Amino acid sequence: MTNHTMNYYYLVFLIFLIPYISCSKKNTDFVKESQVKKEAVAGNTISGCKKWENYVPIVRQPNLSPTRMIKVNFHIMQRADGTGNFDEKLGREYVKNLIFQCNNTLNGGNAKMYLPANNDIPVLPQRYQYVLTPNPEVKGDDGIYFHRSDEHYFMVSTGGNKNNYDRKTLEKYLVGKDEVLNVFLMEHHKDSLKSPRYSKNATGIAMGTWIKLLGLYTDYNKAVPGTNPPEYPLREWYQRGLLNHEIGHVLGLGHSWVRNDRCDDTPSHPNCWNFGAPPCDKVSNNFMDYNTYRDAWTPCQLGIIHKNFSRKESNQRKLLVKNWCDLDETKNVRISKAQVWGGAKDLTGHLIIENNAELTIECRVSLPKGGKVIIKPKGRLILGQSAVLENDCGEKWEGIVVEEKSGVRGEIVMVGKPELKQMVYPLDRK
Ligand SMILES: [Zn+2]
């Protein structure tokens, strides 16, 4: 044999060997119906999808409750002659600063609850942010609009000009119906300002997916220099509490000083604005109370907010940037012990169940296009009867891979009839 033919035989040998090497160690086929263990539903089980407890952000698994991005735009309502509110330059600057200060507090700025005294309520990451959202159909749009109208610039809570719950302004100027949270910066009526007893404090109202904020321009102008802490000189820093509070209503929360706000971790109290004589020797700092701090979110409040973000048909979900549709393998979720998912999830990476780990899914889970569920040889996946595996983006996710090594194979159990849809490799394929 010449050297040449020897190389040829060697090459043929290699070509036959390669598939043998790659197939013999692991069988990485997508799972089929026949490989699934089926179990009947035992007794009455209640789905955990509706429980806020199942949506509280998990500190150590950020990929399980990724940051939700809420689309917002702003309308600055001026009088017909263009006065009475921020002008275009200052208005844009103010709005951007306000969003920045809110996001800063929402990103690592959650404070410990002042009330009840000596509480051990955990301080969790809020995991939501606001993003200024232009109208994509309008060239040069930046999501900040200026309107001139003597009929619409003001908000009044009492008396003949009362219009605080009026929807006319919204209907006239709304941009991105149901998809973007519209914030209107309105001002005090010029007649109100004439009355010496009239309070010029900034306040707000939230209805549906829009908000009216009253008096931020007046607040900006009357602010006494040095009243904010030196590290936060801007009024936007102070007023972040007002916007976070009103958005809290849009996200499904009530006032936290009342007893029936659905949260046991927000005690009722006299709702004092700041520290003073009793009963104001005790002051809350919760963002859904009226107080000067408004920088504490409780686990229950975050659970309710994130439940609403995860509910498929909710108004809150429609306001979100759909940032769970593109596969991002840096966001893979690895399960390394026994875990139960009671609440719905929108994953952006693969879901990997490691050896000696077990995951029970009891609610909806969306996987991105190209996303897989991978069960390692000693891993186990249990799909409960309320489980839904899907792609929430009108695309398809890949399917479930059950790995095998040395005769040991990952396990998949279905209890009752979980729903598996939008798969490239469905279980019942030929
Ligand atoms: Zn309120």
Detailed description of the structure:
- This protein is α/β, with parallel strands linked by helices and 430 residues long.
- The chain has two domains: 25-50 and 327-420, no CATH class; 67-310, Collagenase (Catalytic Domain).
- The chain is 21% helix and 20% strand.
- It is built from eight helices and 21 strands.
- The protein has helices at 3-25, 88-106, 168-173, 190-194, 216-222, 235-250, 299-310, 315-318; strands at residues 37-39, 68-78, 128-132, 144-148, 181-186, 203-207, 210-214, 333-335, 338-341, 345-346, 351-353, 358-361, 364-366, 372-375, 380-383, 388-390, 399-402, 404-405, 408-409, 411-415, 419-420.
- The strands form five sheets. Strands 2, 3, 4, 5, 6 and 7 form a six-stranded mixed sheet that branches. Strands 1-20-15-12-9 form a five-stranded parallel sheet, with no helix packed on it. Strands 8-11-14-17 form a four-stranded parallel sheet, with no helix packed on it.
- Strand 2, helix 2 and strand 3 (128-132) form a beta-alpha-beta unit.
- Helix 2 (88-106) crosses helix 6 (235-250).
- It binds zinc ion.
- The site of zinc ion has 3 residues, from helix 6.
